[in-house]
Amino acid sequence: MNTEILSAITFEAATTAEHFEQIITLQKQNLYKSLTAEEQGQQGFVFAEHTVELLKVMSAQIPQVIALHQGKVIAYNLAMTASMEKELPSLEPMFREFHKVQYKGKVLTDYHFFVGGQVCVDKDFRGLGLLSKLYNASASLVGLDYELCITEIAVRNTKSLSIHQKMGFEIVSTHNDGLEDWNVVLWDIRK
Question: What is the pTM of this model?
Fold first, then answer.
C-alpha cells in the first residue's frame, strides 16, 4: 500500500496560486495554535504563518517544494534565502542566532545557506519518509548554489526534531526567543 501511495506522489516547485493556497490551508491545519498540546506532542506542529503573497515572494527567490497526490498538495517544504531576514518578524530571532552560531569554525552566515522549513506533511501521509524527500528535492532544485540548509525547531517539538535528526540534521545551537526555546539545526547538503 505505501509503495502504491509513494509512486503516486510527485515533487515539484510550487508555481500556481492554487499551490500556494493549498500550502496555506495545510499550514493552518497544523499550526501550533490550531492543535491541542497532546496533538502537538504526538504529531508535531508548525509555527510561522505565511500568506499567499509572501509565498510568491519567497518562490521568486528559491523554490518552495511541494508533494502532490492526485493533484492536491499533501506536503511542503518552504524555503527562504538569507536576504529575506526581515520578511517574517517572528523569524528575526532565528536569523539573529544564525549570526552568532558557528559550524566547523565559521559563523553560519559566512556559508551560502538557505532556510529550510517550515516542513509540513498532511496527517494522512505521515510515516512515508516525505520530509526527507522534500528536503532532498529542495537541495536538488537549488543545486550547487548552497552549502547548508538551516532551520530551527521548537525544543518541545520533539517529533519534528527526531525526524530531522534521522534525516541528517544536527543541532548546532539552542536559544530562547523570549517566548520559547529553539534548536537551530542544519543539514550540510555538500555531504
Answer: 0.90
